[in-house]
Amino acid sequence: MRSVAAIVLGAAAAAFFALSTSLQALEARNTPRDEGLRIDLLQRLVRRRRWLLGTAAGVVAWPLQAAALTFGSIALVQPTFGFGLVMLLVLAVSMLGESVGRREVAGVVAVAAAVGTLGWAAPHSTGAFTHVGVIVAIAWAAVAAVAPQLLRLLDLRSGLATSVSAGIGWSAVGLSTALFDAALADRRWVAVIAWAIAVAAASWGGLLSEMTSLQCWPATRAIPVAFTLEMVAPAAVAPLITQHGAGPVGGVPFALALVVACAGAALLGGSRTVTRTVSLTEP
């Protein structure tokens, strides 16, 4: 039952994150390209009501993600974010009258099958992070926070670079949130504050990178990269940096489920039916 609760809460968080992305992207597409990876971009966006509504949806999503991680492991919860792409599909059909084809059906089936398999194969709880795991999570959040500045200094403002940076940022949020939950459960208040700061810093980097990627790259290319990294990267490294192991049968079902989740995310994220909800300004 705890795994079911984790999947339901994770899917709910994914739905709010997807709504957040769609609302924010509609505004990001209409901003000057030379503001990409700069605080000026967010300063401009924060004055727009629709972007603020998207931000509010993202704020609602994070406590749901944190709650999901109290019921299930990060190896289970992060792949449920594939349901965010399913949410975008639902929005495309209900709001825009888009049709559902074989690609979209295959993507939904793949995500659902992967998450269902992970409900059995993934460890039921994240377990304690190893000392190395804590260091990895700190470094991951730090890289996510400074990635936009590094990309700007290196003049790497391409859609691919910023989409990867966004995926790194949102995956760092997942890892930091798991450690935030653990510190909160143990009432280690200094650690709670530290990991809350890490969540905020990684979110900042992920948000700025994501808005920039949606400025300069079609949503059909930006979304699969960022979503797949967010879904799979934390889950894939979890067995290496925590004490919960890789699950039954030597972790083979777990690994196969992650591959299927990637495939489903690629099918849905690359579907124009799905990305119509975040690319209304594209030709």
* Total number of distinct structural domains: 1
Bin the helical content: over 70%
- Average residue pLDDT: 86
What is the rounded Rg? Answer: 18 Å
Structural class: mainly alpha
Major β-sheet profile: none
Number of strands: 0
- Count of DSSP H/I helices: 12
Classify the beta-strand content into a percent band.
under 5%
Give the N-terminus to C-terminus distance in angstroms.
46 Å
Q: H/E order of the elements? A: HHHHHHHHHHHH
Q: What would the principal axes of the Cα set say about the shape?
A: globular
- Low-pLDDT parts are none
Provide structural commentary.
The longest helix has 28 residues, at 189-216. The protein is mostly helical and 283 residues long. The chain is globular. It has helices at 2-28, 39-45, 49-71, 74-77, 83-96, 102-121, 131-153, 159-185, 189-216, 219-241, 252-269, 272-275. α1 packs antiparallel against α3 (49-71), α7 (131-153) runs parallel beside α9 and α8 (159-185) packs antiparallel against α9. The chain has one domain (2-278). 77% of the residues lie in helices and 0% in strands.
Question: Layout of SSEs?
Answer:
Layout: H1 2-28, H2 39-45, H3 49-71, H4 74-77, H5 83-96, H6 102-121, H7 131-153, H8 159-185, H9 189-216, H10 219-241, H11 252-269, H12 272-275
Helix pairs in contact: 1-3, 1-5, 3-8, 6-11, 7-8, 7-9, 8-9, 8-10, 10-11
Give the key terms.
single chain; 283 residues; mainly alpha; 12 helices
Concise summary:
Helix content is 77%, strand content 0%. By secondary structure, it is mainly alpha-helical.
